Amino acid sequence: RAKKAGGNRVEPFRPAFRTFGADRLQIETDLRRAIERRELSLVYQPIVRLQDAEIAGFEALMRWDHPKRGNISPAEFIPIAEASDLINQLGLFAFDKAASDLMDWQMQTGDLPVFVSVNLSSAQLLNNELYNDVRAALARTRCEPRKLKLELTESVVMENPEQARLILSKLKDVGLGLALDDFGTGHSSLSYLTRFPFDTIKIDKALVCDGTDKRTVLLRSVISMARELDMQVVAEGIESEEDAVELGNMGCEFGQSYLFGPPIGYDSVLRLLKERFPLMKRA
Ligand code: C2E
Ligand code: MG
Ligand code: MG
Ligand code: MG
């Protein structure tokens, strides 16, 4: 069957998460220069309200246009950055850029009822400078903290729960939103929902697209639990209109997937915002 579809062509097996040896070292060296060479950028994927498909916010996702290799996926370069000190620089670049992009959009549309969510790695949480760096970026961009969210995965908080809880409550006090990302993958512990000051959970696409008959039960209980805890719920990777309706009926408020729109660049976001929020446009 596979042969019929693909002819005689054999796709090379290229594992995204495993770049070894010299190659990996080269990527790390190149990554070290990528920011100043302006090879890194952000794209933004809409997060929509399931009820009316209105845009509630965007997730900022990093892209690397490598001069020789072309686009390298964050699934490949983020782990390399995490294994070195580079992730702090990259993470700060993303936070600062996302905040300043949002301010730029608002300069052209007026105040917007949307947030921008930025991913945060575990190594960043352990960096003593994180808090000051975040404060400095907020001061520099003058972005309202309540319009920004940080997305963290469970492994981030698991690695060092005490330190994580301390820094997260400080960031929360600044006014930033905190989302628990990729919920439902691997080693989930429900206690994270209550022990850390998260206001949002993002249900991983693996759970949203789970093909088994336990899917509905799992989703229903995660969503109702989140709501009892006064948390917002974003379902990732919704593939069909049907699933969107089903999740909405379960009480899930938001969705983020190719169905609602792929990640897009700065200009496309601006166009989209002007179209969706025309009344906020200034003369
Ligand atoms: P994530 O934070 O869970 O981001 C969601 C990923 O799912 C993105 O992949 C997005 O493009 C993809 N996605 C969105 N809708 C769909 C869908 O309908 N189906 C499928 N199959 N996938 C969908 P992307 O951009 O390749 O990023 C991968 C991961 O890399 C992110 O997962 C995040 O963990 C990490 N990452 C990306 N940017 C950053 C960053 O600035 N900092 C850090 N620390 N990590 C980042
Ligand atoms: Mg994320
Ligand atoms: Mg995610
Ligand atoms: Mg992920």
UniProtKB/TrEMBL annotation:
Entry superkingdom: Bacteria
Domain EAL: 24-277
Protein name: EAL domain-containing protein
UniProt organism field: Shinella zoogloeoides
Organism taxonomic ancestry: Bacteria, Pseudomonadati, Pseudomonadota, Alphaproteobacteria, Hyphomicrobiales
Part of the full-length chain shown: 688 to 970 of 970
